Amino acid sequence: MGQALFSTLARDNTSSRRLHPEDSQYVEESWNTWFRTRKKGPHFARAVLVDTEDKVVNSVSQVQESSGSSWRYCRECRISSVGGGSGNNWAYGFHVKGPELHERVLECVRRQAEESDVPLAFLNLLSSSGGTGSGVGSYVVQELRHEFVFKKLVNVVVLPYSAGEVATQNYNTVLTLAKLYDMSDLHVVFQNDSLHRMCAALLGEKNTQLADMNHLMACKLASVFQPVQVYSGVSNIVSHLAAHPAFKMVTVKTAPHVSRVAEKFESILSWPVLLKHMKRSLRKVPSGSAEAVDWEIKQPLSKLPRSVVAQLVPSVTNMLFTRGCVPPDVETVSELSTRVPYCRWIPQEARLLHFHQPRRLLSHDKFITLVSNNNLVCHPLNAIVDKAWNTFAYKAYLHHYTKYGVQEDEFNEAFLKAERILQYYARMAKDSG
Ligand SMILES: Nc1nc2c(ncn2[C@@H]2O[C@H](COP(=O)(O)OP(=O)(O)O)[C@@H](O)[C@H]2O)c(=O)[nH]1
Ligand SMILES: [Mg+2]
């Protein structure tokens, strides 16, 4: 994921034509935020790559050395341990591999923090369902919190495919969520099923691979974190989106996404159509239906049936990013604050923030991003917590965890925590208008 994110940022900084005088400022700001730039040779990502498997880190190194890419992870910031893997076990990752690796990780982070003028925030990319991203990831985030008490911690959490992966993925996700929620400032949640569907449906990737999904995710993240015209800054993003400490999960909806073949023939969509499309992504799950319809994977339409407009989920807050030469007009944007339900306790003026950037993102004529704090995120999470609870009721696989210091009590607490988070979100509808 990290590899895809930094490659996307570098591509965005180098590929687009510079149409505006301010473009140089954008490019410079982005390079300085994400990379330690060098006059000669590839820039160094302000990042630490951590895995418990040598082979993973070595393969990233190999790709980087051979591809002549414009950036690299610097050598000492590629950290792995010998002995390999975390056995898809949060407890092993957290209690064995985390303590083994964290000093080296922290040392790199300290050095990078000193090198950058103002280290504003940490963006932690992790998967919740294996043992390394979840266990070592949780341990490292905990140590970052201890050491950088006042810095913003934003986690990008990838939820697993809902079926067909490892038996312990739901336990690991519950333990990760419970551990990370309070100590972090914001969670940007992705789910592999919906990334996969989006790659297959919109990008026409018949044999969708993790690499395709990572590029999609990277594009989404870049559309949030690349510079905007008025300084937004991570602190603003976090304090707007997580305005209430009980609600810290957001999803990132974006458009347009088209396959490379279709790109050439794609008609240019107007802002009102793109905005409608974002609004549609807030559509409620019909009662009785187990799964949310993934509106994001449909093509933007200029007209929406009335029922769609009426059936939107309430949001805590929303943040809109638009990128393209001409900004959308204020009235069109304001529909997202006046015609979308919000929690009543969020004042009108604190509901929606909009940022625009005239520079194109990755050469898209227009690109729109809605970062939304709403309860649609509960659908995959409820399913995960339910499945984990069913497994726990039979004490299945528990001995793998108790062996490494996670006892039944800790599981019970983690379930309570996860349920409490989800309950807050579930109650939102009653509080909205
Ligand atoms: N989107 C995405 N998901 C990934 C990637 N790598 C792993 N995953 C997901 O995360 C889960 C756990 O990853 P894995 O490498 O087995 O675990 P870990 O290394 O112990 O954290 C997998 O089952 C996938 O669902 C990736 O590069 N992209
Ligand atoms: Mg792995």
TrEMBL record:
Classification via InterPro entries: Delta_tubulin (IPR002967), Tub_FtsZ_C (IPR008280), Tubulin (IPR000217), Tubulin/FtsZ_GTPase_sf (IPR036525), Tubulin_C (IPR023123), Tubulin_CS (IPR017975), Tubulin_FtsZ_GTPase (IPR003008)
SUPFAM superfamilies from the UniProt entry: Tubulin C-terminal domain-like, Tubulin nucleotide-binding domain-like
Region (Disordered): 1-21
Keyword DNA damage found: no
Keywords on record: Cell projection, Cilium biogenesis/degradation, GTP-binding, Microtubule, Nucleotide-binding, Nucleus
Residues of the Tubulin/FtsZ GTPase domain: 38-233
Compartments where found: Cell projection, Cilium; Cytoplasm, Cytoskeleton, Microtubule organizing center, Centrosome, Centriole; Nucleus
Pfam entry (one): Tubulin
Signal peptide feature range: none
Role noted for this protein: Acts as a positive regulator of hedgehog signaling and regulates ciliary function.
Entry similarity comment: Belongs to the tubulin family.
PANTHER family, A to Z: TUBULIN
Official protein name in the record: Tubulin delta chain
Organism listed in the record: Dryococelus australis
